[in-house]
Specification:
Layout (H helix, E strand, L loop, with lengths): L2 E4 L5 H12 L3 E6 L3 H13 L4 E5 L8 H16 L4 E6 L14 H22 L3 E10 L14 H21 L5 E7 L6 H8 L3 H6 L10 H12 L10 E4 L6
Helix pairs in contact: 1-2, 1-8, 4-5
Length: 252
C-alpha cells in the first residue's frame, strides 16, 4: 500500500485530497492544527471507504516541532502501515491573512511567511529522508500569485505562495536524482474555511464572485483534491516542476 502525508487534512482541500487518495487505495497520514474534530471526521470517512488513516497534530508555522513530528510520522508508518517510508507528500496546511501593504505589521508578515513558505520548506526538508525514491510532492500555491489575479490586501499571502511556486521548480530539479516528482497546484477562490470561513459567514458574496469564473461557479474542494490525487499517482508520472492553475478559469 502506498502512503501519503497530507498536511492540513481536517477540512477543505486537504480533507478532499486525503479522501481522493484513500479512494485510490492510498493510506493517509493527515495533520491538523486547531481542528481536531475535522481530522477525526476525515479519518472516519476514510475508514468508511475501507481505507486506513492516522491523524497527527502539526503547527506548520513552528519549525522547532518538526523533528518530533518526523518521529511521529515514522512511528505511524511502522505501527499502522508496516512501512519505514511514505510515497507522497501534500503540503497543503496554511492560512490566510489580509492587510493592505500600508497597514501590514512585521508580526503579520512573519506569521504568513512562517506558515506559508518557511514552514512547508523546512517540513519537506525534515521529511525528505522518509520519502521513498520515486515518490511525489504537491505543494499548494494560489492563483493570487499569478498576474491575472491581484486582489488588494493579499500582497504577503500571494508573495509567499509565489515563493512556493518557485521553490517547487527547484525541488523538482534537486529531487529528480531520486526519481521524486514535485509539482504545485494554484487554486482559485474555493469554498473552504479560507479567510475565517468567509463563504459561510457572507454567502451573499458567492453569486457575484462566481461571475469571475469562466465555468460559472466558485470552486469546490474536490475540484482541487482530485487534481492533487492525479498528480501524485502514476497518471502524473511525466509531470514535474509545474505550477498548475486549478481555478475554473477565474478572471480568464
Amino acid at each position: 500500500m502506498k502512503v501519503a502525508v497530507v498536511t492540513g487534512g481536517s477540512s477543505g482541500i486537504g480533507q478532499s485530497a486525503a479522501l481522493q487518495l484513500a479512494r485510490r487505495g492510498t493510506g493517509v497520514i493527515l495533520t491538523y492544527s486547531s481542528n481536531a474534530r475535522g481530522a477525526e471526521d476525515t479519518v472516519s470517512r476514510i475508514e468508511q471507504l475501507g481505507g486506513t488513516a492516522v491523524a497527527l497534530p502539526l503547527d506548520i508555522g513552528d519549525t522547532t516541532a518538526f523533528p518530533a513530528f518526523r518521529d511521529a510520522v515514522a512511528g505511524a508508518l511502522r505501527e499502522t502501515f508496516q512501512r519505514d517510508s511514505f510515497d507522497h507528500l501534500v503540503n497543503n496546511a496554511g492560512f490566510a491573512g489580509e492587510a493592505l501593504i500600508a497597514d501590514t505589521t512585521e508580526q503579520q508578515f512573519d506569521r504568513l511567511a512562517d506558515g506559508l513558505f518557511k514552514g512547508p520548506f523546512f517540513l519537506t526538508r525534515t521529511l525528505l529522508p522518509l520519502l521513498a525514491d520515486g515518490g511525489a510532492i504537491v505543494n499548494l500555491t494560489s492563483n493570487s500569485a499569478l498576474r491575472h489575479v491581484t486582489a488588494p490586501g493579499y500582497s504577503v499571502y500571494a508573495a509567499c505562495k509565489g515563493a512556493m511556486a518557485v521553490m517547487t521548480r527547484y525541488m523538482a530539479k534537486e529531487f529528480s536524482s531520486r526519481g521524486i516528482r514535485v509539482n504545485s497546484v494554484a487554486p482559485g477562490a474555493t469554498r473552504t474555511r479560507f479567510a475565517d470561513d468567509a463563504f459561510d459567514k457572507y454567502p451573499e458574496i458567492i453569486p457575484e464572485l462566481a461571475k469571475t469564473f469562466a465555468l460559472g461557479r466558485v470552486g469546490e474542494p474536490d475540484d482541487v483534491g482530485a487534481v492533487i490525487a492525479v498528480l501524485v499517482s502514476d497518471e502524473g508520472r511525466w509531470i514535474t516542476g509545474q505550477d498548475i492553475e486549478v481555478s475554473g478559469g477565474q478572471n480568464l
